[in-house]
Amino acid sequence: MREIKFAIIGCGRIAQRHAEHISNNGILKAVCDIDFVKAIELGEKYKASSYNSIDELLANEKDLDVVSICSPNGLHAEHSIKSLEAGFHVLCEKPMAINLYDCGEMIKAAERNNKRLFAIKQNRFNPPVAAVKAAIDEGKLGKIYSIQLSCFWNRNDDYYKNSWKGTKDLDGGTLYTQFSHFIDLLYWIVGDVKRVHTITGNFAHQNIVEFEDTGVVALEFNNGTIGTINYTVNSYGKNMEGSLTIFGGKGTVKIGGQYLNELEYQNIQDFEFKDLPIGNTANNYGQYQGSMSNHDKVYENVVDVLHNGGTISTNSFEGLKTVEIIDKIYQSVKQNQP
Ligand SMILES: NC(=O)c1ccc[n+]([C@@H]2O[C@H](COP(=O)([O-])OP(=O)(O)OC[C@H]3O[C@@H](n4cnc5c(N)ncnc54)[C@H](O)[C@@H]3O)[C@@H](O)[C@H]2O)c1
Question: Ligand 1 atom 25: the closest Cα is on which residue?
């Protein structure tokens, strides 16, 4: 079967994972970073051409199938739209964008050019998450009454220093960079959010982050389910927990661990989760840890969709839905301000 040819835009931390899995699933033809040294380093490692501008890459590289967008959040829309207009499919890192308008423009560009736009939400592949979602879809937990998402991570000042992270324009907010793929699960499992009430604060990052480092959110979903999000990057010294607790008419489950990787509690009528597969470890960036490293599954899905007519694991409409929920949460902070 013909190998899929990829390019990467943005050669920072997560791009290293992308390059590794691209080389397992296809060919990395070109990479680009405005920091040309980073582009050259990654390009040399994988024998790919290196560029310091996306325009130059797209002007020169005509023999591509997919462009993987690994640039800062606030540039995802521009980079995705340029790549789609150049005639390539796009795999976009989370969050899809940091406002709804941009998500709409990205979807329109994909439609206009008849190309696929994949959104990355790799927490869906965590074994307990996938198992709980399947059980809920089969009605095993009955009607879902309420859902609680807890995201207790640590990001110290060094993480934000000399970076786009922590800036309003390129990062967008703690829910966009740290927890958008957790919020995706609320949409995936329960659905659209009707209304939210939010309180946020910046307790420990006032001189370094342009937005909140902690928040509590009460949600009501369209189907009547209620829920909460309790999030912070102030867990002392290290990541503590990423968990989802679900109360249904026929059962209660809690998926926990540091990054939704363990089934911590289950009590379900006439049903039990048994022998869940062991998942991947977390993405380790040296100074800090991220989510479960499921980018292998993300790339397997790209191959399945493009070669076998498979279904995109997270499509662009769902990517937009996460942004819509986060947007509602941040709008409600503004409404609550005295
Ligand atoms: N799915 C996940 O688990 C996961 C994990 C980490 C990061 N991410 C996402 O991946 C993206 C990148 O994050 P990161 O941690 O790798 O950041 P990073 O800062 O390490 O890398 C971003 C790179 O983009 C480059 N860049 C900036 N402007 C550019 C431009 N105009 N053209 C080309 N390159 C440009 C920067 O020089 C930098 O090298 C973010 O959107 C982030 O939210 C996702």
Answer: 10
Among 282, 254, 231, residue whose Cα is nearest residue 122? 282
Ligand 1 centre and the CA of 291: distance in Å?
A: 15
pLDDT tens track for 271-292 = 999 988 877 777 777 777 777 6
CA dihedral 156, 158, 163, 169 (to 10 degrees): 30
The whole-chain average pLDDT of the chain stands at 95
Whose CA is closest to atom 19 on ligand 1?
A: 12
Q: Which amino acid is at 300?
A: E
Does the beta carbon of 38 sit less than 6 angstroms from any atom of ligand 1?
A: yes
Q: Is the peptide bond before 95 cis (omega within 30 degrees of 0)?
A: yes
pLDDT higher than 70, residue 338:
no
| Separation of alpha carbons 96 and 104, rounded Å | 10
Distance between Cα 229 and ligand 1 center (Å): 25
Task: Answer yes or no: is the C-beta of 122 below 6 A from any ligand 1 atom.
Answer: yes
CA torsion, points 154, 132, 126, 226, in degrees to nearest 10?
A: -30
Straight-line distance from the first to the last Cα atom of the chain, in angstroms, rounded to the nearest whole number? 61
Residue nearest atom 43 of ligand 1, based on CA coordinates: 177
Per DSSP, the three-state class of 85 is helix
